[in-house]
Amino acid sequence: MKLSIITAASENNVIGQDGGLPWRLPADLKWFRNHTIGHCIIQGRKTYESHDRPLPGRTSIVLTSSPEKVSVPTDLKEGTAVATATSLDEAIATAAGVAAPTDQVFIGGGSRVYADALPRVDRIYLTRVHATIPDGDATFPEVDWSQFTLTESTDHPADEKHEHAFTFEVWDRK
Question: What is stated as this protein's family in its record (predicted)?
Answer without folding.
Answer: Belongs to the dihydrofolate reductase family.
